[in-house]
Amino acid sequence: MRGMNWPPNKAWTSTDLRLGYRHFVAINYGGKGKDRWVILASVLEADSRLKVSWNELNDKERWNTGWAQLPRDEANPASNLEKTLSGISNESQEYLCLHPSSDSGLFIPSHDKELRRWFIEENE
User: Is the pLDDT reported for residue 46 higher than 70?
Assistant: First the structure.
């Protein structure tokens, strides 16, 4: 596992299809130590959401920070969407309808003046 700063980056690219997509934005995070987690929403379909452990996001074979430029058929192959959704475990399905936290900075306009910090890499 590579050492990543906490809190998480907002942009993530999965190395495999997740819910039929590969590009995600972090909309919430929490937990402490080894129990840290991040809620991700698909960039192309905001209702496609999943909860991922911080340990999993730190696995470079599964996730990369930022949005990698991918050919359209790799980023969102429509023919694989139904197959991908049918393979989601019941445990993962409970996280598909989660909402951004009020302090995520994703609401416009934001009425919460105390937004949580999100990590930003120096080269961004």
Answer: yes
